Amino acid sequence: MACLPQLADDCHYWCFPLSPIDPDGILTPLGALGIAYDSTRDQLDISYCQVGCGAFGGVVIAYDPDTLAPIGEVFRSIDSYIGGLGYDPSTDTLWAGGEDRSGFKVTHYSRTGTDLLHFSASVFGDGMEFIPAAVPEPGTFGLMALFLAGAALRFRKAKLNS
After folding, report:
1. Which of 2, 71, 94, 108 could make an S-S bridge to 117, C-beta 3.0–4.6 Å?
2. CA dihedral 56, 54, 5, 98 (to 10 degrees)
3. H or E, element range at 139
4. 151 vs 139: CA distance, rounded Å
5. Can you say how many angstroms the Cα of residue 7 is from the centroid of all Cα atoms in its chain?
6. Which of 33, 99, 37 is nearest to 68 (CA)?
């Protein structure tokens, strides 16, 4: 049985067992490949292929992050492996490493499994992470305004002196 490890605050190792049974029975036994935290729904999305990834196909299943109880299937692919996952909260979509008959790729998926965009990759993406762009702090805008005011004053002073 597959196991999702968790390191607790007190440095103890916990193991949450994951069922090897595909809800549709197609990819049984399942082998976990990737995981992403969906902050919009407070759930873990875990991607699977058949153990050993022999037959093309993959499935993403959602789990409760506290109990690891299955919530349900997010989507599946019948023609490619779905590897590492990264959740994009700004678009409510998943990025996934994977492989199909044409080779390795990175795919941008909707929550229903629609391929929104994909591009070739040189390796199987078994680890993905989506890092949103940093938003500047309010103090940054204040410093920028002060700089622009100083630059404008200096420019005006130079123009008056010439």
Report:
1. 108
2. -40
3. helix 138-161
4. 18
5. 21
6. 37
Q: In the beta sheet, which residues pair with residue 118?
A: 107
Fold of 2-131: Neuraminidase (2.120.10)
User: Are 86 and 94 spatial neighbours (Cβ–Cβ below 8 Å)?
Assistant: yes
Stated pTM of the model = 0.74
Tokens 């299943």 belong to residue: 61
Question: What does the block give as tokens for 38?
Answer: 């969906």
Among candidate residues 159, 92, 78, 104, the one with its CA nearest the CA of residue 130: 92
Helix and strand totals (H; E) in the chain: 1, 10
| First CA to last CA distance, the chain | 81
On whether the CB atoms of residues 97 and 121 are closer than 8 A, the answer is yes
User: For the chain, what is the mean pLDDT?
Assistant: 84
